[in-house]
Specification:
The chain is built from nine helices and 14 strands. The two termini are 18 Å apart.
């Protein structure tokens, strides 16, 4: 085997929904203000009985079912998250236990905040290419509302909870392109989850300027590494940070024929969950043909970024 591919996806969101009108009763804001600045209408909120590993487990179970596989078919579990409160057992180990994996898979968490899933997907691809794994479960899961300051109207309007998962397996013809990843360490302070208890904060204007000015060229380079042009893309799934970031970025990339994920409107910013969750929904609705090229690009905390082109499952 010379590569890997995504064979199935799954996602999960809590049942509870908070609308912009609900937020207006909590802080000085309103529906028009929120929509005009971030484009979000609703977000899903997990309860106390739904910690990060439960969100991840639910999405993982759906991905396995969609792949027609059992938990014991997996030999590597990766969970991208920045909102796990407990350190050990890590989220990947807890997901493996919840799924009843008897094969003793490798279990690792990755904390690269909003670009966590694309980092984890690249890590799974590398492990499979190196022969260290044959089939991986890659999950992005975050409970952002647990670290949200609900008195801060600039951030509480953004966040939501959820999880998305992908099953990745070895194949002869690579279905996951080379990753482009990196960071801007001197701007790491622009997105923060700090303190005890931890609280999410960001410098919104700095993030906006950096993403809209720097990321289009990086995304086009991802396409170049995959041997395609932006015009070849059938789908673009960017980190669902803010609709006012997603839409200009998609336009500047030049993916004129692509379906652009806009799940942020209904789900808010779910950090590492946003890309797999948005992609899973597009596939579930049949909006991207199987085998078609899709750009995935995550960016955010640490000012880290990672992207790759995959073949749609």
């Amino acid at each position: 085997m010379t590569g890997s591919r995504v064979v199935a996806l799954g996602h999960y969101q809590p049942a509870k929904v908070i609308t912009n009108e609900d937020l207006a009763a909590m802080v000085d804001t309103n529906d028009e203000w929120i929509r005009s600045r971030v484009g979000i209408k609703t977000r899903h909120i997990a309860g106390p009985e739904e910690p990060v590993d439960e969100l991840a487990y639910q999405a993982a179970g759906k991905a396995l079912a969609n792949a027609g596989l059992t938990p014991d078919d997996i030999d590597l579990v990766l969970v991208a998250t920045s909102t796990a409160i407990d350190r050990s057992p890590n989220m990947a180990a807890r997901v493996a236990a919840k799924l009843g994996m008897g094969g003793g898979p490798a279990v690792m968490d990755l904390n690269v905040v909003c670009s966590g899933f694309t980092h984890a997907l690249a890590t799974a691809d590398h492990a499979i290419r190196a022969g260290s794994a044959t089939r991986a479960l890659v999950i992005g899961a975050d409970k952002m509302t647990e670290i949200t300051d609900w008195s801060d109207r600039t951030t509480c309007v953004l966040t939501g909870d959820g999880a998305g998962a992908a099953v990745v397996e070895a194949c002869e013809r690579p279905g996951i392109g080379p990753v482009l990843w990196g960071s801007v360490p001197e701007m790491g302070h622009a997105v923060r989850i700090e303190g005890t208890p931890p609280v999410f904060a960001q410098e919104g204007q700095a993030v906006y300027r950096w993403t809209t000015s720097r990321l289009p060229a990086l995304a086009r380079k991802v396409c170049e590494k995959a041997g395609i042009t932006p015009e070849d893309l059938a789908g673009v799934v960017l980190h669902q940070a803010n609709l006012r970031i997603v839409e200009p970025l998609a336009a500047k990339i030049g993916a004129v024929n692509a379906v652009v994920a806009r799940d942020v409107v209904d789900s808010g910013n779910t950090s590492a969950a946003s890309i797999p969750m948005a992609l899973s929904k597009l596939v579930q609705r049949g909006e991207i043909p199987s085998g078609a090229p899709v750009l995935l690009f995550g960016f955010g905390g640490n000012l880290s970024y990672a992207g790759q082109v995959i073949h749609c499952p």
